[in-house]
Amino acid sequence: MSAFTAAYMLVLIGGIAAADWLVDARELPDETSQGVYGVLVVAAAAFVALTSSGGMPAVVAVVGLLAAFGGWTVLDAYTAFRYEDDDTHAFLRGVDDDGTEAMLRMQTMNAVNQELKNADGPRTPSELADALDMTETRVEPALSYLASKGHAERVEDGYRATPPRWGRLHPVVAFARWLPRRVLAPARRLRV
């Protein structure tokens, strides 16, 4: 590794560490670090373009992909900060910074989802709470979130697990549907 490459790597790692420290120390929005990461990726693309020899197609492709991804990351961070998404489900709002509450909510959601999958019929929130040794106030938001994501459906006075529409291919199809929405999220925010 040349001294120039080592210096660039040090700047890159230092930039990431500095961005994380600033976000924590100054209580900046989370999008700040994402924007800094995007700028650093664009800088990495510029570094590769400046230090590579010639216009080899592989190098041009890597530089183009890095620049496009870095630019998209900056745009995504800016639009997420400027046009804050208000479609976050209540189950995901109000989570503390240290991650304890987020972990507890994820465990609750997973336990409720597994209990619904293992049940022979619809289950009410109180039945689920009793089976999982939880309170209904913990189970109901998880049920609501699972229903909003299509993993559970309301029937009569209870809920049941929604069988995957695509069988074993369901995760692949879900990813293929999610990816374009995620890539186009900045454009959607700008349009609104």
Q: How would you describe what is shown here?
A:
With 192 residues, this protein is mainly alpha-helical. Helix content is 69%, strand content 4%. The protein has 8 helices and 2 strands. The protein has helices at 3-26, 30-51, 57-82, 100-118, 125-132, 136-148, 170-183, 185-191; strands spanning 152-155, 158-161. It has a two-stranded antiparallel sheet. α3 packs across α8 and α5 (125-132) packs across α6. The protein is elongated. The model has no long low-confidence stretch (mean pLDDT 86).
The strands making up the biggest β-sheet line up spatially as: 1-2
The percent range for strand residues is under 5%
Structural class: mainly alpha
Helical run tally: 8
Q: Gyration radius, to the nearest Å?
A: 22 Å
In one word, what is the shape? elongated
Largest beta-sheet details = 2 strands, antiparallel
Count of individual beta strands: 2
Quick recap:
With 192 residues, this protein is mainly α. Helix content is 69%, strand content 4%.
Break the fold down into its secondary structure elements and pairings:
Blueprint: H1 3-26, H2 30-51, H3 57-82, H4 100-118, H5 125-132, H6 136-148, E1 152-155, E2 158-161, H7 170-183, H8 185-191
Antiparallel strand pairs: 1-2
Helix pairs in contact: 1-2, 2-3, 3-8, 4-6, 5-6
Keywords:
single chain; 192 residues; mainly alpha; two-stranded antiparallel ribbon; 2 strands
